[in-house]
Amino acid sequence: MDLDQAEARIKKREIGGVLYAHTYGEESTPNDFFKFAKSLNSDLILVDDRCLCVPTFDESSCADVVLFSTGYAKIVELNAGGYAFMQDDIAYQAVHLKYDPTHHDEVETSYKTAIQNHDRFIYRDNNWLETESQLPTWDEYRKQIESELESSLIQHKILNEIYSSRLPAEIQMPQNFQTWRFNVRVKNKSPVIDAIFANGLFASSHYASLAGIMADGRAPVAESLANDAINLFNDHHFTPQMAERVCELIVKYES
Known about the structure:
The protein folds into two domains: about 80 residues, no CATH class; about 110 residues, Aspartate Aminotransferase, domain 1 (Alpha-Beta Complex). The protein is about 40% helix and about 10% strand. It is built from seven helices and seven strands, in the order αβαβββααβαβαβα. Strand 1, helix 2 and strand 2 form a beta-alpha-beta unit. The chain is globular and about 55 Å long.
């Protein structure tokens, strides 16, 4: 997040809250900015989105809400769930909404089409959010996370060491940005991605910029990243042999 732009908007009273997402699971939290933002507007709701970070249970933050996730493609992947730490003065009440899976599919198709065509996304409210899933108790859920976390971090370490040792240093992002995936910036992104999938492997193209889609304006950093960043898998969906083959393909197409 551009904290200077966020500060300017807070001063203009243009927004009611700030959601700070930790890109790539990078751990540092701008607590000084959070404190300053509250001094500008005490009614501001500050959300510290740590969904791509390593889950912890002793979180201290100046934010009003700190979010963690155990959904798909997270550090601990339970395919569902998440939890939050909230300040005592935050009123939280669980909601119970109607759910229609066809509405979920419609929303998903709508925003994906907008991104693909770079059109403005127009949100239409309907019953797309499921809130009635059966949840484990907090103690059970926490034990699940703790039991999965160790093996997850071991897998990350093994695969990250393969990537860091076999890929050119100049295309690797800094170490603190390699938590969620192992991220590289390449000159020939499309051929590299195509070659990876053609060889029965997979990687993810970095998120498209949502400037002009979800909101007005430009986002030059996000646009640049979308053009050349590739997220390499380092979780239980990938094996060391797969990681080694991906490295060979990237070196081949970047040479």
